[in-house]
Amino acid sequence: MKMKLGKQEMQMLAYLQMRRRQTVKTGELTDPLQLSREQERELFRRMARGGLIARVRPGFYLVPARLPLGGAWTPDETLALNTLIGDQKGRYQICGPNAFNRYGFDDQIPNRVYAYNNRISGDRTIGVIELTLIKVADRRLGETEEMQTAEGQTAVYGSRVRTLVDAVYDWSRFNSLPRGYAWIRGELAAGRVGAAELVDVALRYGDKGTIRRIGALLEIQGVETGLLQKLEKTLDPSTGLIPWIPTKPKRGKINRRWGVVLNNGA
Q1: Is the pTM here over 0.85, yes or no?
Q2: d(CA 174, CA 130)
């Protein structure tokens, strides 16, 4: 960790902060700071190694808005995510464990940020922020809520109902079944989510397996026939069966209407 700023580091931070810049690219400091390309590259390397700036991608860095106390700095989660996806002119929404925690479904605080987006796939690290980016088609982005951070950034989350659907749709990635069924039951019982909006979001953002599992759950919950039929008419006739809990053996009572093996006695 670099604790003392040298002359070039001070000049760089002062120049960018005076212009209210939070990002910088290679080549942008050679003229104003009278540096050669090699001197600029070495300056960026020193600053990044010392924890004074954060590398977003090769040649593109985040810098602190103010001189960091103690000589070390890292962006927060929202700034890191907004900068990375914004650089790609993409869209994102925070999902999975982060959204489960936000809406009170799970009290575990994730040590990384999970986000659906339409540009990047894989893990990234910006400063100390770890990101898991899940690339999806544009049509799978939507049904979101925005949250303003204390630093003035806007974080985009999947909505409460979208998060419940994602818990069923992306169960293998988030390890969210059968917990997701309990979350849905609880949200319906508390009136925080309605059956009609759950059906609509499942139809827009789920797949056939999602629709079958949510249909079986809503039937068990005694939801009105019209909503069940809305789900049912999107399914093709099939003799194939899927398990209610995908991680358990496919043994148990069979719900023929939805083609689901109720392998936990639900």
Answers
A1: yes
A2: 16
